[in-house]
Design a protein that fits this description.
This protein is mainly alpha-helical and 223 residues long. It has 8 helices and no strands. The radius of gyration is 21 Å and the shape is elongated.
Length: 223
């Protein structure tokens, strides 16, 4: 037991390894769902405008008025603990950021010459959005998605710490920290080591996002 054991004699190292799978699955799944929903709605709102833009924008503004963690706690209180419910609760509001980014980028791109040329040759609006605009804003969406994974890891750990995340029989970093807080003086490693794993993983994900931004953003490339 390289990293020691908890109060029940379970190996800390193996539970941390399994907890990493849980954190990565929940964060990647919730970001993927939010990316798909937010990008689709943002493309529609930014390109067509009008009533579609007003409806989606007001819905996004309404969700932005609620603090993220409190909103997730409210949703989890309704749905109950579980991996699927946790992904749904985190995705319920996370699409807003991708929607706002996709909408703004689409409104800027649809006035450019290559979009006007596509309209001039008779291409359908759906083809313009998917084949012309989306590839030109994909790099911004991908960078934001990578950075949001780190945020989702923190959210999952926070909900698991409060007992509203994954079920108690599934090892998760947040619940491991909660289990060891009463033994902090006698067995500090039970909660300290999983607690250190959370910022290390988040920093690694953020570094990856910064690297992708430097690679994919054409404005940052050296001539």
């Amino acid at each position: 037991h390289v990293l020691g054991t908890d109060a029940l004699g379970r190996d800390i190292a193996s539970r941390i390894a399994y907890g990493a799978r849980v954190s990565l699955f929940v964060s990647v799944a919730s970001v993927s769902i939010s990316l798909a929903v937010g990008t689709t709605l943002g493309l529609l709102a930014g390109y067509y405008g009008g009533t579609i833009d007003q409806v989606f924008s007001r819905a996004a503004d309404l969700l932005m008025a609620f603090p993220y963690l409190l909103f997730a706690i409210f949703i989890m209180g309704i749905l109950g603990p579980g991996l699927t419910n946790l992904v749904l609760a985190l995705s319920f509001k996370a699409w807003v950021e991708f929607f706002r980014l996709a909408r703004g980028e689409t409104m800027a791109e649809k006035t450019k010459e290559y979009v006007e040329a596509a309209r001039a040759i008779g291409r359908f609006p759906s083809g313009i959005v998917v084949r012309e605009i989306l590839p030109n804003i994909a790099h911004s969406l991908l960078v934001v998605a990578t950075l949001r994974i780190g945020h989702m890891i923190l959210m999952e750990a926070s909900l698991s710490f409060l007992g509203l995340g994954v079920p108690p029989d599934v090892p998760a970093w947040g619940s491991m920290v909660a289990e060891g807080r009463e033994l902090l003086l006698e067995a500090w490693w039970v909660s300290t080591i999983p607690g250190l794993a959370i910022p290390i993983l988040v920093l690694g994900i953020n570094a990856l996002g910064e690297g992708l931004r430097d690679i994919l953003d054409p404005r940052l490339r050296q001539p």
